[in-house]
Amino acid sequence: MKKLMLLAVIGLLFCAANAFAACTTEQCVTITVTIGQCAAISIDSTTWTGISINAGETSVIATGINVTNIGSGIPVQLAMRATNASCAGSETWTLNGTAGTETYALWAQFNTDPPAGDSWNQANMALTNSNQVSTGEKFAGNETGVNVPFNNSRRLWLQLYAPIATAQTSQQTITYCINGRP
């Protein structure tokens, strides 16, 4: 009798467990994610110092600047600009496409190696005070600043054309800016 009773209790427990299992339901949550397009770049050099140049001379940055796309995985298009030169907070030289009296020029070119002298041209390389977007011709050497893939770099070279005449004898400061856009 005890065995029969034990079997009946076990049977009831088995049925109760199955009944609860049949009552379980599953609920799901749908998650929608959009990754924001973050166009970000880094450069490996933020100063070009030690330039000693005479009026009317030209100087190319010695090592070039690596510009790397470090954004959120999207390609970027590079744009750049420069400022008028200043000394102690006062503007001294005006940025222009060509050098002149109290006027300097700064040209930029993407190239894996130092660009040859005849590869520079004012129409496609001269910087202005406003951002200029890279194209297949603008700032292009054997590389461009167009659709730079994520985690890829471009080598940028700058060429400075000193004013042909200036009354300034102290050190001048020029700010060059580059940015990445989606």
Task: Note the topology.
Blueprint: H1 2-22, E1 41-43, E2 58-60, E3 65-69, E4 77-82, E5 86-87, E6 90-91, E7 94-95, E8 103-110, H2 122-125, E9 132-133, E10 153-161, E11 176-181
Parallel strand pairs: 7-8
Antiparallel strand pairs: 1-3, 2-10, 3-10, 4-9, 4-11, 5-6, 8-10
Question: Helix count?
Answer: 2
Helix/strand-derived category reads: alpha+beta
Instruction: Please summarize the sheet with the most strands.
Output: 6 strands, mixed
What is the 3D form? elongated
- Tell me how many strands there are: 11
What distance lies between the first and last C-alpha atoms, to the nearest angstrom? 82 Å
Written account of the structure:
With 182 residues, the chain is of the alpha+beta class. It has a domain at 49-65 and 78-142 and 156-181. Helix content is 14%, strand content 26%. The protein has 2 helices and 11 strands; from the N terminus they run αββββββββαβββ. The chain has helices at residues 2-22, 122-125, and strands at 41-43, 58-60, 65-69, 77-82, 86-87, 90-91, 94-95, 103-110, 132-133, 153-161, 176-181. Strands 1, 2, 3, 7, 8 and 10 form a 6-stranded mixed beta sheet that branches. Strands 9-4-11 form a 3-stranded antiparallel beta sheet, with no helix packed on it. The radius of gyration is 32 Å and the shape is elongated. 23% of the residues are buried. The model has no long low-confidence stretch (mean pLDDT 87).
